[in-house]
Amino acid sequence: MLADKDHNARVEGGRKVEQFVIDKLIKSGFNTTKASDSDDMIKKVDVWLKTKGEKVGIQIKFRETGNDILFEVFDTFYDFHDGRNKKGRDMIGEAKKYAVLINNKIVIVDKQEAKDVIEEMVQEARCNGWSKKGETSTLFYDDRGFELQLKMTRDHADGRRKMVAFIPKDYFKQSQTIAA
Known about the structure:
Largest sheet: 6 strands, mixed
Helix content: 25-40%
Low-confidence stretches: none
Radius of gyration: 16 Å
Mean pLDDT: 92
Distance between the termini: 19 Å
Structural class: alpha+beta
Strand order of the largest sheet: 1-2-3-6-7-11
Number of strands: 11
Order of helices and strands: HEHEEEEHEEHEEEE
Strand content: 35-45%
């Protein structure tokens, strides 16, 4: 599994998946341009989609396991209201869409829809506590009949505490799926 590899192997594997997804988007008729290294690092955009005269940033993600989409809420998390917390790339980047390789399909979802429900889940955990407490504290959150999760975890590389959200791919009202 790529998540268990060292940093360089994860980066290299991620680049291969990004290029695979970009190639599939182009083959499916999307007008895309690879983002610059600066756009990737600063804006958290992997590829630009040109549509209706506008340029839309897309971040590419992939899941090796699971049938949901993982979002990094906090890259580093100490406790609610702790000024040392560092927001995750999925909460601060300029991408408007995510293209997620999952189960041999590429699902394109709206970032704002994810951010909105993630902020609701964070507020719920902050105000009412976790559904399951401990090292991997988890909030189980039901919205429109879908079970979403907000979870504390440890980073594979250095062990720091972080917060992630898992949202089922079918949760998104405005999504698009293409074959990989």
